[in-house]
Design a protein that fits this description.
Length: 323
């Protein structure tokens, strides 16, 4: 469906849990984030109903995220049901990859087409540090398992943090050269905990200089209609992408809204404005009434974010919104 700025909004990102088996430093604090109580979280039946209604409004592409989506019980049967819904053309998942070695095959069998895996560093000590305890070799195993089972494309999300992984950018370039992996470098966004770390922000332009990418030909985003700008240097099996939410924001082509795990529809990642769909789901509202709420929220999606002027320090940290 269209919003009031004539953008075609057909992409819903669904956070199925606020829980996670990691504690990435830029995403959530080491302690003090209370998990939402189970009854606050939408059931899979409720999410499936919202997905079905959203397809009637023209939504076609669905990304399942979290927290860590793969830690939620019964996730595979939920994905299988989602993939079967009429109108669901693209079912994708964003994961930290820790559970992919054992789950990639089942994800593919359930109908997931593509996977984004977060991997900010390939150095074991650094990975342990930034994720507060994660094991990078398991994630790397998960990356290759995903390729093996035929998830396609497999994208690697690298949040670039000054003084932490800037020296590793060329190693990620080699990864995209050797394997059909699409490595996307992402600007750190000042949301929640990260709003205190603006000095760690690296603009895309500087990343390109660090990579020695002075002259290059951007390729069309054949990989999903998202905000990344892709480059495929000759001889590469994969590609390199840049996601610049800050230095060159892509609000005018934004095609998505987000559903939080507690059932709030969030028209813009960077705005605190949310519409409570959970109450509507639980107070006996009709399909039509829920679709009305949904489409009003989409219609009022803001024209653009204001993160460059103002950090987003709201009630939620990134793991609670879904990235
Ligand atoms: N747990 C899954 C994962 O890590 O891929 C899915 C949820 S996570 C919140 C989704 C994405 O948001 C990850 O790629 C993560 O790196 C990114 N992210 C979290 N906080 C961020 C921030 N402040 N700026 C930019 N990206 C961020
Ligand atoms: Fe968990 Fe993903 Fe946030 Fe890391 S980025 S703490 S893996 S939700």
């Amino acid at each position: 469906m269209q919003d009031q700025f004539q953008r075609n909004i057909d992409y819903l990102r669904i956070s199925v849990t606020d829980r996670c088996n990691l504690r990435c430093k830029y995403c959530m604090p080491s302690e003090g984030v209370a998990w939402m109580p189970h009854e606050a979280i939408l059931t899979f039946e409720e999410i499936l109903r919202l997905m079905r209604l959203s397809t009637q409004l023209g939504f076609r592409r669905f990304r399942i995220t979290g927290g860590e989506p793969l830690v939620r019980k019964e996730i595979l049967s939920f994905l299988e049901e989602s993939a079967k819904l009429p109108g669901v053309e693209d079912l994708m998942i964003t994961t930290n990859g820790l559970l992919l070695p054992e789950m990639a095959f089942d994800l593919k069998a359930a109908g997931v087409q593509r996977v984004n895996i977060s991997l900010d560093t390939m150095n074991p000590e650094r990975f342990h540090e930034i994720t507060r305890g994660g094991d990078v070799s398991t994630v790397i195993k998960g990356v290759f398992r995903s390729l093996e089972v035929g998830l396609n494309p497999v994208k690697i999300n690298v949040v670039v943090v000054r003084g932490f992984n800037t020296d590793e950018l060329p190693s990620f370039l080699s990864l995209a050269k050797q394997y059909p992996l699409h490595v996307r470098f992402i600007e750190l966004m000042p949301i929640g905990i990260s709003s205190e770390h603006r000095d760690e922000f690296v603009p895309i332009q500087e990343m390109k200089e660090l990579l020695g990418l002075k002259e290059y030909v951007p390729t069309q985003d054949i990989l999903g209609g998202g905000p990344a700008e892709y480059v495929q240097p000759s001889g590469y099996k994969g590609s390199i992408g840049f996601i610049s939410a800050m230095s060159r924001h892509f609000c005018n082509t934004c095609n998505r809204v987000r559903l939080t795990s507690d059932g709030k529809l969030r028209p813009c990642l960077h705005s605190k404005h949310e519409v409570n769909l959970r109450d509507a789901l639980r107070n006996g509202s009709s399909d039509e009434a829920i679709k009305d709420l949904f489409s009003q929220a989409v219609w009022h999606k803001p024209a653009e974010h204001h993160m460059n002027e103002e950090a987003l320090q709201g009630l939620r940290v990134m793991s609670q919104i879904g990235g």
